[in-house]
Write a structure and sequence with these properties.
Helix content is 49%, strand content 18%. By secondary structure, it is an alpha/beta fold.
Length: 282
């Protein structure tokens, strides 16, 4: 099935009332674990790379790595720019074959968020690449993305924002936060329902690491078509390595502990795919 854009997979998710899992892959091992999980569960999958990850690894490196693995896969795989921080970065990602780009102007004044989102959407649309934008602020801190927890998405503003930007999907703030939660999150599902009534494009949930499976399922049932996961995958990978070295401090061959890390990430991703309900949707 190979390397695709996000358009069909998210529209299919919208029709089917499930969500596609979008998993940030920091390295080759995490990427392999994600795709192996998607293949085993026959699920479409998105691979996320943030602006900070790209500073570390480069657009070209991630694009080549994901394309190589995707072209061997039997399920649809989309490479996504997560929390893109500039028009220029979005252009570079589209030019290098990304199948989805997010421009995060949520920290900007409303009109500036509209302007940069519209600019990115217009550019990407020419290349048939869908654009995601964010309205409201997701709480927490992940990859230097700092949010506050009380700036929820306004349904009325969402309608105006979508109409004026031409974006394909919208990330909404309904009570989630980046990173792990210090307290049990309370999601505003009534707000999500109202947003769903005011806009007809796919909706996206950020900050899902730490949510219960029931919370993820409830969001998918109310119109969330894409759910982002990052922190839990980092922990799965890092904890697997930590356990390896605690067991054998003399390990030096990355391939030996890499295989174990891949399996840990795969197990985590399979759990999340099942919560999203996208298993069997490929």
């Amino acid at each position: 099935m190979a390397y695709v854009t996000a358009k069909k997979m998210l529209l299919d998710a919208q029709k089917g009332s499930y969500a596609v899992g979008a998993f940030n892959a920091e390295n080759m091992e995490m990427l392999k674990g994600i795709i192996q999980a998607a293949e085993e569960l026959r699920a479409p999958v998105m691979i996320g790379t943030t602006s900070l990850m790209i500073q570390y690894g480069s657009v070209e490196t991630y694009a080549a790595m994901v394309r190589a693995e995707a072209e061997k896969a039997s399920v649809p795989v989309c490479l996504h720019l997560d929390h893109g921080n500039s028009y220029e970065l979005a252009v570079k990602c589209v030019a290098n074959g990304y199948g989805s780009v997010m421009i995060d102007g949520s920290a900007l004044p409303y009109e500036e968020n509209i302007a940069v989102s519209r600019k990115v959407a217009g550019m990407a649309d020419v290349m048939n690449v869908p654009t995601e934008a964010e309205l409201g602020r997701i709480g927490g801190n992940e990859d230097q993305v700092q949010g506050v927890s009380d700036q929820y998405t306004s349904p009325e503003m969402a309608k105006d924002f979508v109409a004026r930007t031409g974006i394909f999907s919208l990330a909404v703030a309904i009570g989630t936060a980046h990173g792990f939660y210090k307290e049990t999150p309370v999601l505003d599902l009534e707000r999500l329902k109202e947003i769903r009534r005011t806009v007809d494009i796919p909706l996206v949930l950020h900050g899902a690491s730490g949510l219960t499976d029931d919370q993820i399922r409830a969001c998918a049932a109310e119109g969330i078509c894409k759910v982002n996961f990052a922190t839990e995958l980092r922990c799965a990978y890092s904890n697997a390595l930590r356990a390896c070295f605690e067991k054998d401090a003399d390990l030096y061959d990355p391939k030996e502990y890499g295989v174990i890390a891949i399996q840990s990430v795969k197990d985590t991703v399979m759990h999340k795919i099942l919560a999203c309900g996208s298993n069997g949707a490929a």
